[in-house]
Design a protein that fits this description.
Blueprint lengths: L6 E8 L4 E8 L9 E2 L4 E6 L13 E10 L4 E4 L13 E4 L7 H5 L9 E6 L20 E10 L10
Antiparallel strand pairs: 1-2, 3-4, 4-8, 5-6, 5-7, 5-9, 8-9
Amino acid sequence: MDRTLLSITFLLLVTPTTLTPVISARSSSSCNNYPHFTEKVTWTTTQCAFCSPLESKANQTLWLNYNGTLTNGTLFDSSYTAEKPWPLGDPFNFTLGSGQVIQGFDAGLYDMCPGEKRKLVIPPKYGYGEKGVPGAIPPNATLTFNVELTGIGAIQNRTFFH
């Protein structure tokens, strides 16, 4: 998957009375609403973000808000709470590629830009498998996560995107 960095080009349109800057931007090649399929996850970008040199890579700390649901729509986990509802939430953080989260969740978050939102659909094998999570996730459940990357790195600035 080839990502194109944000490209900002300032064009000066000169007329006898004005000097007008025009900004054009190219977003990443994955920034479309078509599903992206891998063995571990199917993901779709639901909100694009202008990419900067800061894209999510292995061994980086990611900060994100998310909702996790079962295929029937039952919410089983969320970073949004009564105290911190949408759009603020209480961003979750982990190190990408470190094995701290289920494999499908990890696989669906590479090459994201802060502010980007994705919908991840994770098959049971790369979620919680045959055992599930008693009381929360049944065995062999396909999981759906709606995620928003709010920051990359040790310090997360969630006010930038809200």
